[in-house]
Amino acid sequence: MVAPYDLLGQIKSTILLTTVERKELKALVFKEWDVSSTSIRAYANAIDAAWKTNERWSNTILEMDIVDHFVGEMYKSSLFDEKVMAMWEKRKEEVRKWDSAKKFFFSKADDEKTYKKSTAKNAGFGSMANVEEELPADATDESVNVVLEAMQANTEQMNAVAATNAGLEQTVKEQSKQITALIKMNENLVKALTAAGVKVAEEDKAKEEKKKTTTAREWRMCPFCKEKHKGAGKGCLRRKVNAHLRPKNWTGEDIDE
User: Are 73 and 85 in contact (CB under 8 A)?
Assistant: First the structure.
């Protein structure tokens, strides 16, 4: 006879999940790895905690799905070079299991940290090497890793600031070039407008001079009537010979010639 609790567990494990439930459950396991704040062991433990503590996972997420996701995050982390990743990919399918994946990448991560420690000391990398020397002899690997991760985070932050400053400097240079170009364009525009203004002024002056000349020619002393008027001379309307040119409202007097 099956105990009530065991029977309930069997029933739960055989009930099919809905699409929404599967999506929510997968979201708990298939989380991205934040390398800057979470160690590789803590990340793997979180996957285990979400995957192995639920009796219904076996019908939803296979072990190969977990391995593929975990290895995919290893690629994205850029913590391991191509050589390390190639070593994993060359393994036979039957040994590429979840436990072996954790063991493989834990080991490579430890090797990477050891290499960084050695490089820091041998290269005389001030801050990190000094931290290594100041740690007590009985310091645990975990405490050393915490310090190194903090130093790495600080270095990455400084690099980010340097990159930002370089970007700002480049932006300022580009803006300076744009401002210089705008100033040049403005100078050319002012020159063009000035030249156009001078040309218009000269044309207006020429028109005015022409008008004065024309007016002077039209209004002159007539040798016949001894007065200034348009058409002075032979065209004088006071001459009888020009009577046919006079307007209807003509009131002038004839002159004796």
Answer: no
C-alpha span between 165 and 193 (Å, rounded): 41
d(CA 81, CA 28): 28
pLDDT of residue 2: 47
Contact call for residues 54 and 84 (beta carbons, < 8 A)? no
- pLDDT at 140 (0 to 100): 52
CA neighbours closer than 13 Å in the CB half-sphere of residue 65: 14
Reduced to 3 DSSP states, what percent helix, strand and coil does the chain have, rounded to the nearest 5? Answer: 70, 0, 30
Q: What's the gap between Cα 198 and its chain centre?
A: 46
pLDDT, position 134: 52
pLDDT, position 129: 47
Q: How far is CA 137 from the centre of its chain?
A: 48
| Residue 40, burial from CB neighbour count under 10 angstroms (0-12, 13-18, 19+) | buried
Query: In which residue ranges of the chain is pLDDT below 70?
Result: 1-17, 53-60, 114-149, 151, 212-218
Q: List C-alpha distances in Å: 80 to 16, 83, 132.
A: 38, 8, 23
Alpha helices in 15-97 (DSSP H): 19-29, 40-52, 63-77, 82-89
